[in-house]
Design a protein that fits this description.
- This protein is an alpha+beta fold.
- Among the domains are: 127 residues, no CATH class; 137 residues, Immunoglobulins (Immunoglobulin-like); 119 residues, no CATH class.
- The strands form ten sheets. Strands 7, 13, 14, 20, 21, 22 and 23 form a seven-stranded antiparallel beta sheet that branches. Strands 5, 6, 15, 16, 17 and 25 form a six-stranded antiparallel beta sheet that branches. It has a five-stranded antiparallel beta sheet with strand order 1-4-24-19-18, with no helix packed on it.
- A hairpin with a 2-residue loop joins β38 and β39.
Length: 786
């Protein structure tokens, strides 16, 4: 036999034990993925050689499916019905608001631990249905995929609890304080009866084995009968000479010669969980980036709007916010032989440490989840009536066959602590154990998780796993490059004035250095048009280098649509796309598409204004470089932005003040007090007037109040002190002028530090006295100037 030695596995195994021996600070040198890989390699050869994820990509650029029209015979109208995909309870996941779409199918094959780093796939070629070959895309894409670890999950259902070790304690005449036992009596000295719910658990007081005596055979047989040790199926085995191997003592036939046998339990108990049928969970997120050219260079645009789309086994179909990208996840069922555990006959034993005061005293629970026990169902019995299983109880211990004629410890095999010790011994010798959870697969840091009352056991799925990611997204501006020839669609003229036919004239320029054969074809027209409408093509023509040729296409059928778009293609003899340009067709109208300008029509686009094509459409038509229009790139400094912001603030405040002044002016037309408020600060008011400005009292003699304001001669209410039109204009500018007037008064008086209302008052004369006005026209007192 030849021994094959793998140095890489040995190095990984040594690294694992080195990591276990290092301190908590040093272990952080390795990443989580590296730690998991080392653990998996140390205990399983399935995932030791980690392989990168294998991606198989297929891309197709195709037309979008449009909503299917249906005819309502009753109302003679067309009803548009949306095309749906998938079951009726799924949302509409079919692109319809587009002309063309990109369909990408990614077959993902994972083996071993999942590669969770960002992985990038370049998509610059697509399958071309025209040539049946792979062709280059005009604008390429980058597909970014980030996977989460593939895990297999088992639901855990609590069944019962079993003790880690049931041990037998023997009391004989050599035991200090032993008073002996009577085989005829059910109460055994030194064995304590266990009570539960105020009731003694049957058989918890142990059993008694009589001393072997040749002169008292009948008494011994009677004792055996009373202690239920008689073998009814084989009476010969009841010979006294075959009994009392369990006591392990020399003595006489007195009561002190009988031995007491008690069953005791450890302080550690294990929770027993039954496994549900496992399933595999795979989650990933993807983003799509498109390369495009601007006036200052190439850039990448995030098609998924900077938000990764999440999909996987839990989310089989997903879309972005504006439904321009949709995705589906497909995977096949996993064969049960590839799972780490067999859920039909494996059970999990988890130590219960809730009542353990000092866990450091119990090494069997210090190992954590990696040393949880995986036990077959036939080695666990929780009712306590079966020997040699985990969960053996008092009844099985007391009723075991020939209980006094067998060695100590009989009926107490296959205890959880024994299983733990066996695996621990094998690990110390570098062997693989049979019970520890870590030997059945690669475990995450927290293999058992809880959500409410439900618990789940997780393994890293390291067997081969294949899934398929199907992506569709809007791609109206992209095209397939089928040749390296240089053909340019310089001008296109569409004449739809004839009701019986439509004429398309296209000028194609051969920008290459050799003669090439080109022909033009019409495609990507609306589906409502006749099918033959999208299969109109010219005859191939050999165009010399740096020359152009004029192609003419006659469509011998009336246009059923008022206005629509088609694509004009330039192809070579191998049906490879050279250039493409969208053209506009209108019934009873003429349209032109020249150079870098989008199509314009005579009757709809007055003066045939030139709307510049996008750079992508400009390049698709065969042109190179940037569009031939001046583009001035202005760079702004911080000072420019600051001044611009200040200008915006000033303009905003000015408009706000003007609006407030207009409101005050309009209100002043109805309420005089509102109109004249504050005008005494701006103007020298009050002042003498020759006549009233109100028409109904303009012929009356002017009267003034005690503050010098003109008042109504009958009611004594204040009236206008200036003409109405002057008051209206000043009020419109009031909130702009008023602050400057206040500042001027403050500056003149020199009282910026402590400003009071009386600082802005002014005086006027009345009856030979100086009167001081307060409150901006709201006078309340008179002050004499002595």
């Amino acid at each position: 036999m030849t021994l094959q030695f793998d140095m890489s596995k040995l190095f990984t195994l040594i690294s694992y034990f080195f990591v276990l021996a290092t301190s908590g600070d040093e272990i952080n040198i390795l990443s989580d993925d590296e730690k998991d890989l080392i653990k998996c390699c140390a205990f399983s050869s399935d995932c030791c050689d980690q392989k990168p994820t294998n991606f198989e990509v297929k891309a197709v650029l195709t037309q979008c499916r449009k909503p299917e029209p249906d005819f309502d015979k009753k109302n003679d109208m067309i009803i548009v019905r949306e095309v749906r995909s998938g079951p009726c309870n799924e949302p509409n996941l079919d692109l319809t608001n587009c002309a063309k779409k990109m369909k990408i199918s990614v077959k993902i094959q994972n083996v071993g631990l999942t590669n969770c780093k960002n992985q990038y796939i370049l998509i610059d070629h697509v399958f071309d249905a025209v040539t049946g070959e792979k062709q280059k895309l005009f604008t390429p894409y980058i597909l970014k995929i980030t996977q989460k670890p593939i895990v297999e999950k088992y639901g855990l259902w609590y069944e019962s609890m079993v003790n880690e070790e049931a041990k037998e304690t023997v009391y004989n005449k050599n035991t200090p304080g032993y008073k002996g036992c009577d085989p005829k009596d059910t109460t055994i000295s030194n064995c304590e009866s266990i009570e539960y719910n105020n009731r003694v658990i049957p058989y918890s007081n142990g059993f008694c084995c009589p001393y072997k005596s040749e002169n008292n055979v009948d008494s011994s047989k009677l004792s055996l009968i009373s202690s239920e040790c008689v073998n009814k199926t084989n009476p010969e085995s009841n010979d006294v000479s075959n009994l009392q191997m369990r006591g392990n003592q020399d003595g006489d036939s007195s009561s002190n010669g009988a031995t007491g046998h008690c069953l005791n339990y450890s302080n550690i108990w294990y929770l027993v969980y039954r496994l549900e049928k496992p399933f595999v969970q795979h989650e990933l997120a993807f983003q799509i980036f498109q390369k495009y050219q601007t006036e200052i260079g190439w850039k990448w645009k995030d098609v998924t709007k900077k938000i990764p789309i999440k999909i996987g086994t839990n989310i089989r179909a997903a879309t972005n916010d504006d439904n321009t990208v949709i995705a589906r996840y497909i995977t096949s069922d996993i064969n049960e032989v590839n799972f780490a555990l067999n859920y039909k006959f494996h059970k999990i034993l988890v130590p219960d440490i809730s009542n353990v005061e000092n866990a450091d005293n119990y090494p069997e629970i210090a190992g954590g989840p990696e040393e949880y026990l995986v036990v077959k169902s036939n080695k666990i019995q929780s009712d306590g009536r079966v020997c040699d299983v985990a969960g053996v109880g008092y009844e099985a211990f007391a009723k075991q066959p020939n209980r006094c004629g067998v060695p100590i410890g009989t009926c107490l095999k296959n205890q959880p602590l024994q299983m733990w010790r066996e695996d621990k011994a094998k690990v110390s010798k570098g062997k693989r154990g049979d019970y520890f959870l870590k030997f059945f697969g690669a475990l995450p840091e927290q293999p058992i998780t809880a959500e409410g009352d439900n618990k789940t056991l997780r393994f890293f799925f390291t067997k081969p796993h294949t899934s398929t990611l199907k992506i569709e997204f809007k791609d109206d501006e992209n095209s397939i490059l089928r040749s390296d020839s240089l053909g340019i669609i310089t001008e296109v003229y569409v004449d739809g004035t004839d009701t019986k036919k439509t004429t398309i004239i296209a000028k194609i320029f051969n920008a290459g250095l050799t003669s090439s054969v080109f022909y033009v074809a019409l495609t990507e027209c609306p589906l409502s048009l006749p099918a033959s409408f999208s299969h109109i093509a010219s005859m191939p023509v050999l165009i010399p280098p740096q020359r152009q040729h004029v192609y003419k296409l006659d469509i011998q059928c009336p246009l059923t649509e008022t206005s629509f778009f088609c694509s004009l293609l330039v192809l070579n003899t191998d049906k490879q796309l050279i250039a493409i340009r969208k053209i506009r067709l209108e019934r009873s109208n003429r349209c032109i598409c020249v150079w870098h300008c989008a199509c314009a029509c005579y009757y709809d686009d007055y003066n045939l204004k030139c709307d510049v094509l996008s750079l992508l459409a400009y390049h698709a038509a065969g042109f190179q470089g940037g569009t031939p229009i001046p583009v001035q790139i202005i760079e702004y400094s911080f000072v420019d932005h600051l001044l611009s912001m200040m200008l915006y603030i000033v303009l905003t405040l000015s408009l706000t003040f003007l609006l407030m002044g207009l409101v005050k002016a309009l209100a002043g037309l109805c309420v005089v007090s509102v109109g004249v408020w504050g005008l005494d600060v701006i103007l020298d008011l009050p002042r003498r007037i020759g006549r009233y400005y109100e028409r109904d009292i303009s012929h009356r003699r002017v009267r003034y109040n005690e503050h010098g304001w003109p008042v109504h001669p009958d009611t004594g209410v204040r009236v206008r002190n200036i003409p109405l039109h002057a008051e209206f204009c000043i009020n419109v500018l009031f909130f702009i002028v008023y602050p400057f007037c206040v500042l001027h008064i403050f500056a003149k008086n020199g009282k910026f530090d402590s400003v009071r209302p009386e600082d802005i008052d002014s005086c006027y004369c009345k009856n030979g006295k100086s009167v001081k006005r307060k409150g901006s026209g709201l006078q309340s007192t008179l002050v004499k100037n002595k």
